[in-house]
């Protein structure tokens, strides 16, 4: 039972024994209770009251309830709480002091009951105890009678700190929150900022894994959560699921999350070159580029092209691998290899050597031409004005932009790829000589430029624009004189051509003759039969 502050004054002297008997018979309870409970307080009887000649009356005052249970929590600090008590002084001024914060009220006119209100901001006329730090708080209630103050003192607990919970993994914090792992069963540690007796597995919200039983007590608990399949996993503790010893409900935890991932990452690879002629061809100085898309974020990706190290770019799901050709790479279809890549969970990808799209042919070979020269002249070695000289061209590989000249003149080009023609019809101003030509400017698909070609693989044509002339000597076989002829004599034309000719036909006296010879030397003979013109 609480002690009592008592004072009494009388008109006649009384003995100290009488006063003590009165004090013992007085039943006054001073109790301080916060939220639910009763706190014993103390009181005293002053020496002056117990003096042999004291004339004081008895005075009682006590607190009977503070917030209901001896404890002031955060919720009560915010909402407000009341210090209540009673005194035998009716309609008297009572001063309450909570942790140094005073609040004055008036006791009830008939019951002597009193109450003092407090909250954390002084709103509504309550005492502002917002500055009182959590601790064991001294609470007093006082009443003054005829200049003498009578006080009861109590002690209560103030705890306005809400408990928090921190979630971590148990082994080296792996996976870190937001990370990934190949491990299905992850041990978790739940660390409370202060002890709690009602923290339970039902307070934990697990998504993406199956939570096992909860172990521990006080402020530290552990549990294992096991993922059944690849998924995002989250662990949390909702607000107000457990309380501290003062009854403060917890705040929501910071969510702990990771990904359970056992899927091997894959690559999608597109290959191309920066060749000006075609992205499917490459030659010295060109870049071959692999554009790589990973199925998920990966690291440590390394690619080679034609067995050579490449320049790697990008990160996450988007990468590039580039090789600049220096001329020592293997001609033909480009080979590559992309390997060593892993995802965030540590799953290693399989080495990839196949392009999803695109291919590049490495080509260092300079294209060459095989050229056959011919003419429309009946003599395959000659051409005259009006004849056409033709170059029939076979390239060693498909080429473009082939241009030929004959005798320095532009020609009519035909064909494409590996088969071409170049034709010139002589108009009489060409040079009389063995025909010269030039075929140049041609390139293959990779851009390799062919060397200008001026030599025919076969065939040769001489341009001849000069008409042949004849030197003719006439004589007869007349026995008397070569300048005379009669019936039975032969008249003979001995003919020397300025150049080899063919098809020479002569008549004498308009009659057909017997032709002989060839090339540049010919004869034409007529035997007179008597009907010739004398």
What would your notes on this structure say?
The chain has 534 residues and is mostly beta strands. It folds into five domains: 143 residues, Immunoglobulin-like (Sandwich); 96 residues, Immunoglobulin-like (Sandwich); 75 residues; 95 residues, Immunoglobulin-like; 58 residues, no CATH class. Helix content is 4%, strand content 45%. The protein has three helices and 42 strands. It is rod-shaped and about 200 Å long. The N terminus is likely disordered.
Outline:
By secondary structure, the protein is mainly beta.
SSE topology:
Blueprint: H1 16-25, H2 47-50, E1 61-66, E2 71-72, H3 74-79, E3 81-87, E4 93-98, E5 101-106, E6 113-119, E7 127-128, E8 135-145, E9 148-158, E10 165-169, E11 179-181, E12 185-192, E13 204-207, E14 210-211, E15 215-217, E16 220-226, E17 231-237, E18 256-260, E19 267-273, E20 281-282, E21 287-299, E22 302-305, E23 308-309, E24 311-324, E25 332-333, E26 336-339, E27 342-343, E28 361-362, E29 369-375, E30 382-383, E31 388-400, E32 403-406, E33 409-410, E34 412-425, E35 437-440, E36 443-444, E37 462-463, E38 470-476, E39 490-501, E40 507-508, E41 511-512, E42 514-527
Parallel strand pairs: 2-9, 6-7, 11-18, 20-28, 30-37
Antiparallel strand pairs: 1-3, 3-6, 4-5, 4-8, 8-9, 10-12, 12-16, 13-17, 14-16, 15-16, 17-18, 19-21, 21-24, 21-27, 22-23, 22-26, 25-28, 29-31, 31-34, 31-36, 32-33, 32-35, 38-39, 39-42, 40-41
